[in-house]
Design goal:
The chain has 31 helices and 27 strands. It is of the alpha/beta class. The longest helix has 34 residues. Belongs to the DNA mismatch repair MutS family. This is DNA mismatch repair protein MutS. One of its GO terms (biological process) is mismatch repair.
């Protein structure tokens, strides 16, 4: 597209000029009450939003495609476009159209992009999930040293950590950012890793990652002389943080959000969990992709959005620091023991708004009076909660939180006096400053409101003066105030002496409109009073906004404290309601669970009203530097995978600071959590099910240390029997001899049970079943020992395979087992004794016979029977049935 064309209108030339500066974004071009899109933007947006595509004028002889969305409902359209992978440049009018007209009738209103909307830079309440973070991340490498920084601009949380390339994928899986910024030089190398995590990748120029420039950007932002004020950061970490600030400056057009001081995280302080394990354990989302059915959804009893976001962080990043874990467990125990206090706290927390996100919107000028009220209401609840906690003997974590809730009296008093109880959404609507707060505002409001009464009195006076009782004083945006009467009565007002007072303005089909000098003067006074009141309120809004931003750090600390209290109370409520126990977490290599349960499966069974969940023990305590491994056998559907997962989740919950679903739990500190349960093809990357299985297994064997907990299910099942058995056997030996970890290893290869006699740290366990008349009954009990067989044929029968297939499978299985007992492979028995065409045919359908009772019923019409005849028919049918 080129601007150099005589047929291009000034407005379209302006659009093309602005679009040329934002080629990679759809341009929302503000025109009055609509955002319009043109050319390729319009075509793409119309398809993505399912809205009408029209046209407006011509360019280079071709129609210009056009579509648009209303400004008042633009947020919903923005969300749709962002979710479909678009970036949007919001181009606003930067001056009043009246100013443009002063430059000439053909002058175009000045416009400019005030914001680039991208997945990682959303702040609007309607565009965000209240209970989840929306992270923007940046990754960089400086002299072979990697770093990952991330920020949630809707809350201001800003973090950074060292991150070698091999750790990037697991960390992105942990954080689940919506957008990742990388150097354009690294885009090709990192694209697959980033997109695999579900995030959008955004390249920036290399200069944006320059560590020297980045440090200058950061010190300017935080108004400090050196970043050492916040800790010691590597050059790579400075580079990643600086790139985020640069990107925010680009997308927010110089108006940076309110960011908290950066926090450096150490990888060694959290449990290492890779992407496959998070997916297999369904920590924050189920395998289907939704939140329902996940661990997070099952245990979330928080009552505030910040508390829910904190819960997700804890579940995604369990701690490896014993002091931290014990402090969190202490706070949960306190809340569990103080049931009434905990319930009172939760009642107040339910009334606490999301102060973090309100602060962010205020700082970016995307807030309104309700955000001011959100801060006020949040501080009010903070004061109430502080009072409830006063005098109690608090654990350290709750005590720290309680201290952050006080000290806001001055700001709270200011906001309480200044704001009405329920303010409007937008400042331009007015009416949010409380009466009595500002004398000038009260005076303007009085004149405005009394002016309305004066208008009513003037109408009564005019009706008396003219003798026209139907006369009305009305208002519209074109004429302002005017006097309206019917055409019949207008003749009187158009004649002397009334015509000297009433000045004709307009004649319509059904009425005639007049004005008077007195009415015009009153209109000016009323209009000026209304505008003046609105201007005063806007000025007061800015004053209150600055008062809040001056104490943003303290408000942020109070918001974090409320989230901490919410989470502790939620965990306590969960523990009381579900009968969870406090785990013992120490520096040993113990793993002793009594009566462990799977929280998600147990809740699901309860909702279905079915059988109770069967609790099981698990003892994997490793001693003398050895491994501790259970080799678990048993049929499919018996509960092996559930048993594996529940023990991994119990360890995770304990180190997240929660009580756990068990009668008793003793867990030695877990450094890594690995799960390889189930697999599917990865067609996009050309990987078969077996290849996916092997890649995940390789990651475990190459990374697991002696403090890891590993759960493995059916290693080697995706290939030939002996190939699979050999791989599973070697994997078990490696876990035992090299990794020396705590592990649960489920398998159908019964030959592997012999390893318990060879490897000191291996014990056999099985899921008990009971056979009854050829069927199998699952007991869901895990016991020491080995299963004698897999019961696959019985499970196939339960699944509904045709009887002929099940019977044929039994015959083939007997032949194979007989061949094994006789020292062969069973293959000869299949070839010689069970030729292909000896497969049992499906049974022929039995001939249909009709009984006497059925013949009798065929001629009966129920609607024609009397009660006596119906009773007689029953006796006859009973007799016929007996004779048949």
């Amino acid at each position: 597209m080129t601007v150099a064309n005589a047929s291009v209108t000034p407005m379209m030339a302006q659009f093309l000029e602005i679009k040329a500066e934002h080629k990679d974004a759809l341009l929302f071009y503000r025109m009055g009450d609509f955002y319009e899109m043109f050319f390729e933007d319009a075509v793409a947006a119309a398809e993505a939003l399912d809205i009408a595509l029209t046209k407006r004028g011509k360019h280079l002889g071709q129609d210009i495609p056009m579509c648009g969305v209303p400004v008042h409902s633009a947020e919903g359209y923005l969300l749709t476009l962002i979710r479909k992978g678009f970036r949007v440049g919001v181009c606003e009018q930067l001056e009043d159209p009246a100013e443009a007209k002063k430059r000439g009738s053909k002058s175009v209103v000045k416009r400019g992009v005030v914001r680039l909307v991208t997945p990682g830079t959303l702040t609007e309440e309607s565009l965000l999930e209240a209970r989840r973070h929306n992270y923007l991340a940046a990754y960089t490498e400086v002299r072979e040293e990697g770093a990952l920084a991330w920020v949630d601009i809707s809350t201001g949380a800003f973090s950074v950590m060292p991150c070698p390339p091999v750790r990037l994928s697991p960390e992105l899986a942990r954080l689940a950012p919506t957008e990742v910024v990388v150097s354009e030089a690294k885009e090709a190398d990192l694209a697959e890793i980033v997109t695999e995590s579900g995030a959008a990748i955004t390249p920036l120029a290399r200069a944006s990652f320059d560590s020297t420039s980045s440090e200058k950007r950061l010190t300017d932002l935080f108004k400090v002389g050196t970043m050492e004020a916040f800790g010691t950061f590597t050059r790579a970490e400075i580079s990643a943080m600086g790139a985020i600030v640069e990107y925010l400056d680009i997308t927010q057009k110089g108006k940076l959000p309110l960011l908290r001081a950066p926090v450096r995280e150490a990888a060694a302080r959290t449990v290492q969990i890779d992407a496959a394990t998070r997916r297999n354990l369904e920590l924050t989302s189920s395998l289907s992709g939704g939140r329902d059915g996940s661990l997070l959804s099952t245990i979330d009893r928080t009552v505030t959005a910040p508390g829910a976001r904190l819960l997700e962080r804890r579940i995604s990043s369990p701690s490896r620091d014993l002091a931290t874990i014990h402090a969190r467990l202490d706070s949960v125990r306190f809340m569990a023991e103080q049931g009434r206090l905990s319930q009172n706290l939760r009642d107040h927390l339910r009334k606490a708004p999301d102060m973090d996100r309100a602060l962010s919107r205020i700082a970016l000028d995307r807030g309104g009076p309700r955000d001011l009220a959100g801060v006020r209401n949040g501080l009010e609840q903070a004061a109430e909660i502080s009072s409830l906690l006063a005098g109690a003997e608090l654990p350290s974590l709750i005590n720290e939180a309680a201290q952050a809730l006080v000290g806001h009296d001055e700001l709270l008093d200011l906001l309480d006096q200044a704001l009405v109880a329920d303010p409007p959404l937008l400042a331009r609507d007015g009416g949010f400053i409380a009466p009595g707060y500002d004398g000038d505002l009260d005076e303007a409001r009085t004149l405005r409101d009394e002016g309305r009464g004066v208008i009513a009195q003037m109408q009564a006076d005019y009706a008396t003066q003219t003798g026209v009782s139907a006369l009305k004083v009305k208002h519209n945006n074109v004429l302002g105030y005017f006097i309206e009467t019917t055409a019949t009565h207008a003749e009187k007002m158009l004649s002397a002496p009334l015509s000297e007072t009433f000045i004709h303005r307009q004649t319509t089909a059904n009425a005639v409109r007049f004005t008077t000098v007195e009415l015009s003067e009153m209109e000016t006074r009323i209009l000026n009073a209304g505008n003046r009141a609105l201007e005063i309120e806007k000025r007061l809004y800015d004053t209150l906004k600055e008062a809040i931003l001056d104490r943003a750090a303290e408000i942020g600390q109070a918001a974090s404290a409320l989230a901490e209290i919410d989470l502790a109370a939620a965990f306590a409520d969960l523990a009381r309601g579900e009968e969870w126990c406090e785990p013992t977490v120490d520096d040993s290599r113990a793993f002793d669970i009594e009566g462990g349960r799977h929280p998600v499966v147990e809740q699901s069974l309860r909702k279905q009203g079915g059988e109770p969940f069967i609790a099981n023990d698990c003892e994997l305590t490793a001693t003398n530097g050895n491994a501790a491994i259970w080799l678990l056998t048993g049929p499919n559907m018996a509960g092996k995978s559930t048993f594996l997962r529940q023990n991994a989740l119990i360890a995770l919950l304990a180190q997240a600071g929660s009580f756990v679903p068990a009668r008793k739990a003793h867990i030695g500190l877990v450094s890594q959590l690995f799960s390889r349960v189930g697999a599917s093809d990865d067609l996009a990357r050309g990987r078969s099910t077996f290849m996916v299985e092997m890649v995940e297994t390789a990651a475990i064997l190459n990374q697991a240390d002696d403090r890891a907990v590993v759960i493995l299910d059916e290693i080697g099942r995706g290939t030939a029997t002996y190939d699979g058995l050999s791989i599973a056997w070697a994997t078990m030996e490696h876990l035992h001899d090299v990794n020396r970890c705590r592990a649960l290893f489920a398998t159908h290869y019964h030959e592997m049970t012999a390893l318990s006699a060879k490897l000191d740290g291996v014990e056999n366990a099985t899921v008990a079943v009971k056979e009854w008349e050829g069927d199998v009954i699952f007991l869901h009990e895990v016991r020491k020992g080995a299963a004698d067989r897999s019961y696959g044929v019985q499970v196939a029968k339960l699944a509904g395979l045709p009887d002929a297939v099940v019977e044929r499978a039994r015959v083939v299985l007997d032949a194979l087992e007989k061949g094994e007992r006789e020292g062969g492979t069973g293959q000869k028995a299949i070839i010689d004794d069970l030729p292909l065409f000896s497969a049992t045919p499906a049974p022929a359908p039995r001939p249909q016979t009709t009984s006497q009772a059925e013949e009798k019923l065929a001629g009966v019409h129920p609607d024609e029977l009397t009660p006596k005849e119906a009773l007689q028919l029953i006796y006859e049918l009973k007799a016929l049935t007996a004779s048949d």
